[in-house]
Design a protein that fits this description.
Radius of gyration: 15 Å
Bound molecules: zinc ion
Strand order of the largest sheet: 2-3-4-1-5-8-7-6
Oligomer: single chain
Shape: globular
Number of helices: 3
CATH superfamily: 2,3-Dihydroxybiphenyl 1,2-Dioxygenase, domain 1
CATH architecture: Roll
Structural class: alpha+beta
CATH topology: 2,3-Dihydroxybiphenyl 1,2-Dioxygenase, domain 1
Largest sheet: 8 strands, mixed
Strand content: 35-45%
Length: 134
């Protein structure tokens, strides 16, 4: 598989409205608006940083993955996303290597990207996202 770069860091926050002030006002990163992905029970907001981005994640439901993460671990870095050239190829390669996946097939995330998560048990505790943007 070809990994192109760290696409973004996903950071779980209680509230994007409150959370964004540090990233946009203190650090001066451009705020490019929020987008809700209902299927994942999350609202996301992206802040570009050079070749990568910071993604803030706010849960839209108390049983969503981000709400559960905050309940267990508190606010903070929830996942690291790597941009890959071809996500289907990457998932096939990982499956062949016996890596436990959360998503066997890509789904559509914020911004229309194809995304898939690897299981943290396969990565020493880090929730890893693969994403492909065309
Ligand atoms: Zn992400």
């Amino acid at each position: 598989m070809k990994i192109l770069k760290i696409d973004h860091l996903g950071i779980a926050v209680n509230s994007i409205d409150e959370g964004k002030s540090f990233w946009s006002e203190v650090l001066g990163l451009p705020f490019e608006g929020a987008e809700t992905v209902e299927a994942q029970k999350v609202t996301t907001a992206f802040f570009p940083v050079g070749e990568s981005e910071v993604e803030l994640l706010e849960s839209t439901a108390s049983d969503g993955p981000v709400a559960k993460y905050i309940e267990k671990k508190g606010q903070g870095i929830q996942h690291v996303a790597f941009r890959v050239e071809n996500i289907e190829d990457a998932l096939a390669e990982l499956k062949e290597k016996g890596v436990r996946l959360i998503d066997e097939a890509p789904r559509i995330g914020a911004g229309g990207a194809k995304i898939a998560f690897l299981h943290p048990k396969a990565t020493n505790g880090v929730l890893v996202e693969l994403c492909q943007r065309d």
